[in-house]
Amino acid sequence: MTERIPETIRMDIVELHRRTADRFHTCLQQVAPDHWDLPTPCSEWDVRRLVHHVTANHERMASRLLVRPVERPDGDPAAAFTAACTAVQTGLTLPGALEQSAPSPFGGDAPIADLARILTTDLATHTWDLARAIGADETLDPRVVAELLPTVERAHPIMAASGLFAPAVQIQDSAGVQERLLAFLGRPM
Q: What is the pLDDT of residues 67-89, one digit of tens each?
């Protein structure tokens, strides 16, 4: 069993995920045909691979929640993300969904509520990655950042040990909240 991520988020996880997904979708709508092969801050991924990763994570979560695979529209990465994200939102609102457990990327099982926080943190990180790659506004929703930062600060040792997240980067003590969150997630600004 993995260590449970502390219950610190004041915003409902469904709303937190929705706000984060809305920002990702806004960036995704700005991806031009010649952007798909651009590099991202994730050195091994271009824009296409990053969007595929985010979509696949949402499809996995939706499949756990809805106990069926999500249908992926062919050839349209934005539509595929939207379908997977809508399925996650539907699944998270099912009665008792947040109390269920499922396999964690850190090993063992974890409550769906914690897995939704992990998914949302990953989505916020990759929203910034996508915005940086395509030259869009890199500002994340300030309420989302304020909600995610305390959890990421406490969970950082678990996240770092997993190898699933980039190592934290050093920042100035005067750094703002978004810069601190991104630094914990290995993103230099």
A: 888 888 888 999 999 999 999 99
Phi, psi of 87 (to 5 degrees): -65, -40
- pTM of this prediction? 0.90
Residues whose CB falls within 8 Å of the CB of residue 183, separated by 6 or more in sequence, listed in order: 168, 169, 170, 171, 175, 189
By the 8 A CB rule, do 63 and 152 touch? no
DSSP state of 167: P
Over residues 167-189, the pLDDT tens digits come to: 888 989 899 999 999 999 989 87
Cα torsion 83, 65, 139, 72 to 10°: value is -20
Q: What is the dihedral of CA 102, 105, 109, 114, to 10 degrees?
A: -70
The pair of three-digit structure tokens given for residue 6, joined into one six-digit string: 């502390």
In degrees, to the nearest 5, what angle opens at C-alpha 45 toward C-alphas 149 and 29?
A: 75
**CA 141/CA 23 separation, integer angstroms:** 7
46: helix, strand or coil: strand
**Residue from 102, 71, 82 nearest 25 by CA:** 82
Q: Give DSSP secondary structure letters for 107-165.
A: SSEEEHHHHHHHHHHHHHHHHHHHHHHHT---PPPHHHHHHHHHHHHHHHHHHHHHTSS
